[in-house]
Design a protein that fits this description.
Length: about 475
């Protein structure tokens, strides 16, 4: 690449953030909580029970290893973000470093991921409301969707404020559980005080009670618990000070995982033997019950409700940005580029919210296998975003090392080799999904969606050649 081309790249990189039309309304406090909240979801509060029953105490090691890989993914994303902090980052980077078709696939796949996730989470949130109130689920689902939709249209600052408080609830619940467990272990209060011991981690059949193989099989469930951690990348175009805030948020990933996943599980499994946990039960609820704290069920229900609403809120936010990014690159309808006076993507957010409501209605009317298949696809589509991030970081690093692109201010440790390792790990998880009959359906859905996108891209390319051009932003 010539020096003139390098300067052009530099100029384009610096111009993008100011030319997107968004308002930089997300401050450091909100970005930090969005980053924290993205790593804590229903996968921990509800799904961990199945993982514990399958792997025993070794699930702690599974979360630690998977958390390390997540950190590598986030540092790879951070390197790209500091090179070019744009909203809709995944599809933009795919378009620039892999090709227009990759950007098309990534944008529409990540959009679908959040639409499907929004449908399932708002449905779940409505179900959680029946714990306290006898109201039809469709009423709660409608109210939640409309409220979150309205909040996302008012301003990005309000979205960030909602995410801040949703995340605060989740963080407070986990820290509270850890402190209670510490008290049980040291002071011995509650019904579990006489039996609580760190030795539960190795005395109940050993650290690997069902063997290393079963622990490996839980990696897919563990990785799914981290889906949406990459959401902080979508906020890049609307952060007040992305060059400072985003690296700080990404660098907190290790301690977040160490405290909220590894730390919480060590405490819970020390207070209550792993044999007391079963699939379909929240480990937090079981722990509260064993400690003689029946109010714990209501507390966890409230926390899971906020986790579901947080996911819906994130879905509203990210889908509108993804559709606008596609439209700006002629890979989606032009009307998705429209912004409100407050800088939010009106048409894209409205379209996605409408689909979420339709999906909720379909789920209520026909809660059958077809919908389960669509939901299972969300897992593989979320991992696709991670794969794209890693491949783009590898290609960017090689170009920047050759002097063809400016060097990022936030280089990922381990460089290309760290990303290659993370890709290999994700590949292993996908293989494990193929072995597990319950998770295999995700792999069946992916080729179907890929074929749909390939046909759509060919039609779009024929009607509008600009769709096959590299990024013009």
């Amino acid at each position: 690449m010539t020096s003139a081309r390098v300067e052009k790249e530099r100029a384009g990189t610096e111009a993008v953030p100011d030319g997107e039309g968004y308002q930089r309304g997300l401050g450091a406090r909100q970005i930090q909580m969005i980053a924290i909240g993205g790593a804590i979801g229903t996968g921990l509060f509800l799904g961990a029970g199945k993982s514990i029953s399958k792997a025993g105490p070794s699930i702690i090691l599974a979360y630690a290893v998977a958390g390390f890989v997540i950190f590598l993914i986030m540092r790879a994303l951070g390197e790209l973000l500091m090179y070019r902090p744009v909203s809709g980052s995944f599809s933009e980077y795919a378009r620039q470093f892999i090709g227009p078709f990759a950007g098309f696939v990534t944008g529409w796949t990540y959009w679908l991921f959040w639409v499907v996730t929004g449908i399932t989470e708002v449905t779940a949130a409505a179900a959680y409301m029946t714990y306290w109130f006898e109201i039809p689920q469709w009423v709660s689902a409608l109210v939640f969707t409309v409220v979150l939709y309205g909040a996302n249209l008012i301003s990005v600052k309000l979205f960030g404020e909602l995410e801040f408080w949703f995340s605060m609830v989740k963080v407070t619940a986990i820290i509270g559980m850890i402190l209670i467990c510490v008290g049980v272990l040291t002071i011995g209060f509650s019904d579990a005080g006489d039996t609580a011991s760190v030795s539960h981690l190795w005395n109940e059949g050993g650290f690997f009670p069902h063997g290393v193989g079963n622990t490996l099989m839980t990696l897919q469930m563990v990785m799914f618990a981290f889906l949406a951690v990459e959401l902080v990348g979508v906020t890049a175009g609307e952060s007040k000070d992305p060059k400072t805030v985003l690296p700080r948020a990404i660098n907190t990933v290790p301690w977040r995982i160490a405290v909220f996943y590894v730390g919480a599980l060590i405490m819970i499994l020390s207070v209550v033997p792993w044999t007391a946990f079963h699939a379909g039960e929240s480990p937090f609820v079981v722990a509260f019950q064993k400690m003689g704290l029946p109010a714990g069920a209501g507390i966890v229900n409230f926390v899971v409700l906020t986790a579901a609403l947080s996911s819906c809120n994130s879905g509203m936010y990210s889908t509108g940005r993804m559709l606008r990014d596609l439209a700006l690159n002629s890979q989606g309808p032009r009307f998705f580029t429209r912004l409100t006076s407050s800088g939010t993507p009106l048409i894209g957010t409205t379209f996605s919210a409408a689909l979420m409501l339709v999906g909720v209605w379909i789920n209520y009317q026909w809660p059958g296998k077809a919908f389960d298949y669509v939901v299972s696809f969300a897992t593989i589509s979320g991992m696709w975003a991670w794969i794209v991030i890693l491949v783009c970081q590898i290609r960017y690093r090689r170009k920047s090392d050759r002097g063809e692109l400016p060097v990022s201010e936030f280089r990922a440790p381990g460089g290309v080799w760290a990303s290659v390792f993370a890709l290999a790990f994700i590949g292993m998880v996908i293989v494990l999904m193929g072995i597990d009959k319950d998770a295999r359906v995700s792999l069946y859905c992916a080729p179907v969606w890929g074929l749909v996108l390939a046909v759509a891209y060919l039609v779009l390319k024929r009607r509008n050649p600009e769709a096959a051009a590299f990024s013009r932003r």
